[in-house]
Write the C-alpha cells for this entry.
Amino acid sequence: MPELPEAESARRMLHRLLRGKRITSAAAQDDAIVFAGTTGQRVAAVLRGRTVVGTGRKGKHLWLELDRRPWPAFHMGMSGWFETVPKDDDPPRFWKLELTAGGRRVAFCDIRRFGRVRLMQDPLAEPPISQLGFDPLVGLPPAAELGRLLAKRGAPIKAVLLDQSLFAGVGNWIADEVLFQAGIRPHRLARDLSKAEVAKVRRVLHAIVARAVKVDADSSQFPKSWLFHRRWDHRGEQSLPDGSAIVRETIGGRTAAWVPKRQK
C-alpha cells in the first residue's frame, strides 16, 4: 500500500518531468469512483492547455500546481501509482488519467480503484487534505508540543501513529518500524509515554521517512536492520536473525508486527 515515501517519490517524478511544461493533451477514463466530486472528462478538460508551475504534497496526497486553478489532486489509495508511457504505446493497464507535457506521457493508474482524483482550488485549505495532521517529512512539531498532543490520547500508540489527523502519511509498516526502532510496545497508551520516549518517537519517525524518501521508496535499499524486511516474511520467518521472536497481532483494528525482546 502506498504510504508517504511512495507519494513523495511520485511527486518528485512529476515535478522533474512536468514543471514548466505545457500540457498538450489529456484523457481520462469514465470512473465515478476514482474521480471524486468531478468526472474524468472535466479533469482532462481542466488540464489541457495549462502549464505545470509546481507540485505539492501532504501525507499521502499530492497535486499539480497549474498556471490557473483548479488544480488536480491525487490520493494513491491502496494501489495507485504513476508511470511514464512510451510515446507510441497504448495507455497502461488500469489507467485512469493520462497527460502529455513537454513530449512526455504520464499516467495515473489504479488497479483496485481506492485512489482518488479531485479538482481543488486550494488543496491545503480544503478537505480531506485540510483535515490532515503533521507531515512527518517536513512538518513535525517540537517534541514538547507533540508530547502535549499525545498526552491527550488514551489509545495505543500504534493506533495513534496511524491517525491521519495527527500523523499525515504514516501507514502500517512505518508505524511498526518506528515503534521497533524506538523500543516501544505498540500496546502502550500514547498518553503514558515519557518525554524521552516522545522525543525518540519523533526523531525515529522523521529518520525512517527521510531514509525511505532518500532511496525513492525502493524497499530493497532500506537498511537490513529494519523490521520491514521480516515483518511479513513470505518464507515464514517468525524471528529476527538474532532469534528474537516477531509477534503479529491486531491492535487498534490493524495488524501489528513487533518484537517483545526489544520493545518494552
Remarks:
- Helices lie at 4-18, 40-47, 143-150, 157-161, 172-182, 195-214, 228-231.
